[in-house]
Amino acid sequence: MIRLIPLTAMVISLAACSAEETNGSTPSASNEVSPEGIEFTLLAMPDSDDVAVQAAWPTDWAYRENTNPAAALVGAEMILAGGAEGYPEGEAAEQLADLNTEGGLYGSANDHIVGELVFERDDINEVVEIANAHLRAPLLGQSWLDRISDGITQGVREERAQPGAAGFEAIRWAVFGEHPLRNALSLYDLNPLDELTRDDITAWHAETFTRSPEAVAVAGDIDARSAGEALDTLLAGLPEQGREVKRNVSPDFTPRRILLHMPQAEVSTLAFIAPLPPTRDGGEVEDLLLTHALGSDDQSVLFDAVRTQLRASYGFGAGVNNYTREHRILFMAGEVDTNQMAEAEAVVREAYANFRQNGLEGDLADHKAPLASHFSEVADRVMVQANSALESALDEHPVERSLKQELEAVTEASLNERLDTAFPSADEFIVIAVSPDADALPEACVIITPREAAGC
């Protein structure tokens, strides 16, 4: 399911720091190469006590027919939790906690597995040795596979019972059909979890973790030589890049109106989705400002339209999400009264069309203030800055982008241009209603299971 994401959770990859925001010392960004040839971005942050490392390994596991999509989700949790060569199960977690270190692995837009570490500078040698053992030779025990898989299964079952989640699953069927990526996006079909084996996990691990991440970033008060030596230790013993990554998918964003009939649903929901350009094309700060004004709080355009015109007790929100790094979407969604479904669709379309035509209302500085406040709060956090540098590298932006104050450069003209050239028109959305009333959305393609949306 796509969730409405708070503004503060959407801007981590855009955080920039300034001289004033790092204890009076000036940060710098540079492209570096370790003694053993690992390319990385170094964001030097003088006076910081911590160091953060992030690495992104490319993957096409979710795009392929012959893989189990649950392997990446379960495997990412197993690697650090389940022990490694020289580290019994649970021992590493205790050691890292004693060292005041945080670390983990997670999937990013189905195109990368990202590993992250943040630790006190003086503990760098011990921390990277622990992490290397778990990347290179994890135990991947069956007991941890069962434990983690059971937890994920429970979460999927709870989510799929919600009408909104079923609606977004129907949209994924409409957009991707039978492509393997569709189920990898949500695991709405529980078969991969039921069928997951340790062999699936070991195969995923073996092809994913190599000495050749697509991007690596280090942030903190550390010089290039020390950072490079730490990365060499972190990636020691891992294989060279093996198979070529191929991410072949052609989503179908043709506008459609679909109603998923769920007689047992206690509420009705309505959602709109349409594509946005990928972040590598720029405009991400404009997108954040625009979607926040469109539908992120009780002062937003959609919230006001639904409350005022429908006199509804519910709200309606908007946000941005990634199916993949290449395929990014704008969504608008919320609960609606079943007997107001058709009217709600018209109200939301009209409010969005007016917003796209007229842009932000009020003083631009007021719209920038929440974002500026967040940037200021996270400016000296090394993990945030490492993530910013990593995302910039993946999008092939200049190395110094993570230091720029992009928010200051946003103008009313740039926002209006973004609305005109990048945001979809009001009639370019796929609309999905979920309702106990099969007639709630007139002239829609009516289905009774999410899968049927592929035929609408």
UniProtKB/TrEMBL annotation:
Residues 1-18 form the signal peptide. It comes from the Bacteria. The keyword Signal applies. Keywords: Signal. Gene3D superfamilies: Metalloenzyme, LuxS/M16 peptidase-like (3.30.830.10). Residues 196-360 form the Peptidase M16 C-terminal domain. This is Insulinase family protein. It comes from Vreelandella zhaodongensis.
